[in-house]
Amino acid sequence: MTRPVKPPRPPVPPAAVRDLPDPMPLRRMVGPGVVAVGIGMAAGEIILWPYLTSIGGLGLLWLALATLAIQYVINMEIERYTLATGQTAVAGFSSWWTGWGVVICLAGAFQYVWPGWATSGSTVFTYLVGGGDAVWITVAALVVIGVLLTFSKVIYKTVERVEAVKVALTLFFLAVAVVFVISLSTWGEGAERTVTGFGRIPDGITFTMILSALGAAGAGGVHNLVLSNWIRDKRYGMGAHVPRLISPITGKEEASGGDRYTFPDTPENLTRWQVWWKRANIEHFTTFFLVCLATIGIMSLLAYETLFGRDDLKSDPSFLRVQGEVMAGEVGDWLKPLFFAIAAVSLWAAAMGLLDVIGRVAGDFLRRTYLSGSSRWTEARLYLAVVWAEIVLGSIILLAGFDQPIALLVVSTCAASVVTLLYSILLVRLNTRDLPPAIRLRGARLAGMLIAIAFYGFFALAMVVTQIQDL
Fold it and tell me: 102-116 burial string, b = 16+ CB within 10 Å, else e?
């Protein structure tokens, strides 16, 4: 009996050959990491990780450190592909099977349609002003965000500026917390528990909570994948050959996410590549990893200092109101409104970034896969259509009564952890088989990606087993 012949692997789509551009100075590369941390520095750093600390103590700080280190490795593999090709990682996945793009777009829509970040910001805003309907404030905030994105000439620049202001304000508050609130004994206990508690889960913390915290540490889910789009718009590497996403209302429509380039394997290009890769790693380590680590660490220490041991905390943002009142009593009334104002702005800015995330992923995929020949549905128009669809759906969810911020955030962040597991597997294949040999994923970075897959896989499986046992 003749064995069937296995069909050959589909070839990678042909790429246009261009020289790798000269590396830009490191100071000009700063931006994508700021945007990533600006969006990520919200639900996890302000709500989920402090809440977990308030009920379980400092025994989970080791998990935050491990998660951020793993995310750094994953994020740089997303950047590797776009630096080398000018194409997004999602477009690379879809070149093997269109279904991968569909799955990721649907996962992103599910992850971000729950407006937990915006709702949390509005809830904290009511604490600041002394009352109000958080649902209608959230709907208004989402509409304002949609208008800002719609009328931005270069959308990336608007998002980068908003997130940079947010990061600066958050770092200012962290400095205030370090000086006025957190005691030396809490710092010492945090350092000790991070080392001695490694691998242990404190009592009262479920695997669902942990999976949610993993998705909310730094970036998470589809959020990470949009680093491809951001570094392309920042003109990193071969992304300089790809037009940027321009508003169809205020500027010329130029974005063309499906383009793929390659550079000749010459000593000059490989030298440029080494410089690009080194500087991209420095930018992301400094602006993403270190800032996220400082934010989660300090906000968790702050929650431990002010809230740990209380039995009146609820699983909603009301614990932030309690925290603000405690800080006002210990330091001064001036600290409470500062805390509430920065938390509200931070969460709203994150909501803006997350709408940008799903708009970019879906717009890029739909244009390249299904509407490449359409003169009407350009990538910019698809982007805005997706953004406004998410705003409308999120508003409907809130007005229908599903308005508990913590519940919304847990749904979103658990979904983020699962989709991170999926595309980590795809990234290994993408960067080991679809890039030139000289710049492929290998060695320590490959080992790091395999650890990332095992890491997210373990906690996802543990959550499923726990849920089955509970049922």
Answer: ebbbebbbbbbbbbb
Structure tokens at 144: 């304002």
What totals of helices (H) and strands (E) does the chain contain, helices first?
20, 2
Q: Which two tokens stand for residue 146?
A: 């949609």
Predicted confidence band of residue 286 (pLDDT cuts 50, 70, 90)? very high
Least trusted range by pLDDT, from 50-64, 171-185, 212-226, 404-418: 404-418
pLDDT over 90, % of the chain: 20
Please say whether the beta carbons of 238 and 261 come within 8 A: yes
| CA–CA dist 175, 155 (Å, integer) | 31
Q: Give me the chain's average pLDDT, please.
A: 82
Q: Supply the pLDDT for residue 10.
A: 44
CB atoms within 10 A of CB 133: 11
Displacement of CA 122 from its chain's centroid (Å) = 21
E strand spans, 217-286? 261-262
Give the Cα separation of 359 and 155 in Å (integer): 11
State how far Cα 353 lies from the chain centre: 9
Q: Among 149, 147, 165, 222, which residue's Cα sits nearest to residue 38?
A: 165
Amino acid at 214: L
Question: How many other C-beta atoms lie within 10 A of the C-beta of residue 469?
Answer: 7
Amino acid at 86: G
Beta bridge partners of 261: 16
Measure the CA–CA gap between 267 and 246, rounded to whole angstroms: 35
Q: Quote the tokens at residue 240.
A: 């300089």
C-alpha distances out from residue 335 to 3, 50, 179, 323, Å: 74, 18, 12, 11
Torsion of CA 107, 257, 235, 247, to 10 degrees: -90
The identity of residue 237, as a single letter, is: G
CA distance linking residue 69 with residue 48, whole number of Å: 19
Q: Which helix (H) or strand (E) is 17 found in, with range?
A: strand 16-17
Please, which residues have CB within 8 angstroms of residue 455's CB and are 6 or more apart in sequence? 66, 67, 70
Is residue 7 very low, low, confident or very high in pLDDT (cuts 50, 70, 90)?
very low
Which helix (H) or strand (E) covers residue 16, if one does?
strand 16-17
In total, the chain counts a number of residues equal to 471
Residue 196 has pLDDT above 60, yes or no: yes
